[in-house]
Write the structure tokens for this entry.
Amino acid sequence: MMLEGEGSRRHERLYALWLSVGLFAVHQLIELVVAFVFHRHVLDVCYWDCKWYAGISLHGYAPTATAANHQANWAFFPLFPLLVLLANAATSVSIPLASVLLGKVLFLFSIYAFIEFSTRYSEQVPPLCAGLIVALSPYAVYGNTGYTEPLFLLLTCVFFVFLKDRRYLACGLVGALLSATRVPGIFVVLPYAIVVAQHFLPASREEKLEMVLGGLLIPLGIALFMLHLHAVTGDALAFIHVQKAWGRPLSNPLAVIVGGFEQGKIRLIWASMSVLALGASLFLIFTRRLTLGLFSLFCTLIPLWTGLQSMPRYIWWQAPILLVLANVISRRATMIVLMPIFVLGLAYMYIAWMAVKSWVV
Amino acid sequence: MGRLSRIYPLLIVALLVFYAVLAFWVLHPTVSVAYFEYYLSGAQAAAPR
């Protein structure tokens, strides 16, 4: 009986793996078609933040900001550029190319990880719907452009799978990597605290120690980054302070959303996305998926402090939000309506990306 | 307790000490209002090193 169950699980994993490969290939095909039509090369797409990350891989963090606009690479977290550096050392391809290729590999893994995550947290979501929403959403464009988003999604999914299995030390180690990937990574400490609070009292002494150690490991990534920034720039919080150089002073998230609605055009779309993401987080909280909802709420609210510009990247690569969307397209009618819109949106995003439009950054 | 789990208390203490040092020695000066205002004024970014 047990062997039968294990065989079935292995079969499911194999199906999820091939599904991920297939959907990844469809995404690559869409990019290839757009690149062919617009006479671009699919591997020459390292623009905007990808260049910042490539700069970190090449030269490390800058001791001073640029004199012209006060910008510096301190806003960009170190795990992705470190992995790019390793890929560069292992393959000797150029840093920008290594960024794009590594991003693609992580994108493939993140599709598979999200399917695993969705089967654990929402059994009614078919693996196909889970894979479709990650691989072919409009903002899936960042999976191919040497950005940190695929790494963030991959690690978030792995973290939540470990949390479901209550593997506290594994959660702590993945959490440490997450907190070194981007600012919202540190917020996995919230779902972790909720699960630990529910199981702490009846746990054995060894389990309690594991819970505490796992929780203490989560901030280690960001702590080491802050220590490095302190050594290089003299300011451990340089990654927050430098936001001003991009015209992003810390503001009230509510005022940021209202401002977006008032300004209209693309900012209206970003503000609407932010409201929907906050709604999805609250939906998760009120449907007793507190761990997922709380994580998403903070992952949406905190980036909102610095404005609307990057909100799509923060929203469309959040595992809990994608889970809500996968639930939405699980209904045949909504899938038939939404997926063609999403695929067209993805193609449009590629056109904008290859035309180096600043709003797609 | 397993062999590996015997070092858990040691690791917990080491991490707590590390975070305490980070908070009081590295982080504390930068979260002060004066430093924040100095930074936001752009003077920090423009200052030669």
